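pls design
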């Protein structure tokens, strides 16, 4: 299941506008949230509308909000038309990770199996709980499996697209 480095991933969503000069409010999925400005260009995808790519001209924290100015977006009405757009970047824009580390986007869609080979389902999403991350696995039912490497997570094979877990299939 090795993904192409040219595949896009979602790193945020345009959630509103700020002022009259085309600034947009961004709900960032990066941690910390201002890291979204490390990536440019952004490809904005809004269901049922044209896909557009913009260079990030400026970006900053504005209170608890992240705001950005995109090249070619110069007024409030242009900015308003972008509300609801998902912010995509090329996966190749991400820095390489160390052995045993993964971007969440790498894990989405991977099969999850017990050490004995019982298929539990596929990773639908991940949750950040504060204590540890949690895999949301959907199969014949939904399971929440703590992402604790060396404990519940026995092995992650990106090439095979399989995560081996120490988990009771009846739980």
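designed seq:
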């Amino acid at each position: 299941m090795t993904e192409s480095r040219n595949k896009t991933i979602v790193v945020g969503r345009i959630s509103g506008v700020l002022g009259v000069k085309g600034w947009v409010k961004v709900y960032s999925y990066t941690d910390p949230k201002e890291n979204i400005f490390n990536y440019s260009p952004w490809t904005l995808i809004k269901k049922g509308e044209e896909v557009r790519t913009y260079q990030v001209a400026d970006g900053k924290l504005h209170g608890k909000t992240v705001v950005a100015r995109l090249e070619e977006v110069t007024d409030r009405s242009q900015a308003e038309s972008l509300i609801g757009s998902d912010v995509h970047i090329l996966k190749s824009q991400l820095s390489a990770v160390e052995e045993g580390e993964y971007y969440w986007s790498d894990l989405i869609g991977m099969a999850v199996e017990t050490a004995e080979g019982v298929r539990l389902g596929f990773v639908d999403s991940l949750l950040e709980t504060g204590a540890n991350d949690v895999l949301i696995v959907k199969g014949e039912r939904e399971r929440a499996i703590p992402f604790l490497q060396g404990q519940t997570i026995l092995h992650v094979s990106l090439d095979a697209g399989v995560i081996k877990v120490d988990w009771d299939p009846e739980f």
